[in-house]
Every structure is written in structure tokens, then in C-alpha cells.
Amino acid sequence: MGEVISTKSTASMNFILSLANLLLAIEWSVYGYFLGNMFVAGPNVLGLFVSIAQLALFYVYPNHPAPVLPP
């Protein structure tokens, strides 16, 4: 995430992977909550917040293609 902020481009991040990470963090967090097991829910809630931050970077720093200079 540091590279994205310094370059102001999400070219180095994969959107599908970030989205899948968010969905899985939600699923495991809910599963851990229903089990009453904080050892399952706790780390996944943290991962949920990190995933939200990653997806927010896609909104703040969209991946623009490099400009093509004429020859």
C-alpha cells in the first residue's frame, strides 16, 4: 500500500485479489462471531479493515494507463 500512495497509482495492485480478500475476511469474521471464537474472528476483522483500506486506494488513486507520447 505504501507503493500505491507514493506513486499515486494502483497499477501495482490487483483489484480482483483485493475484492476477494474483502469477501473472505467478511465470511470468516461472521463465522468466527457465530462460533463465539475470537481467535477466528479477531484476525479476520483486522483483515477486513485492511481490505477496505486497499479498496479505498482504488477509489482515491485510480489506475490510469501511461500516456503514449507521439514519435
From TrEMBL:
Listed transmembrane segments: 12-34, 40-61
Record's GO cellular component terms: Golgi membrane; plasma membrane
Subcellular location: Cell membrane; Golgi apparatus membrane
Membrane topology: Multi-pass membrane protein
Molecular-function annotations in GO: sugar transmembrane transporter activity
Keywords: Cell membrane, Golgi apparatus, Membrane, Repeat, Sugar transport, Transmembrane, Transmembrane helix, Transport
Subcellular location, principal: membrane
PANTHER family registered for this protein in UniProt: RAG1-ACTIVATING PROTEIN 1, SUGAR TRANSPORTER SWEET1
UniProt record similarity statement: Belongs to the SWEET sugar transporter family.
Protein's recorded name: Sugar transporter SWEET1
Organism: Bugula neritina (Brown bryozoan)
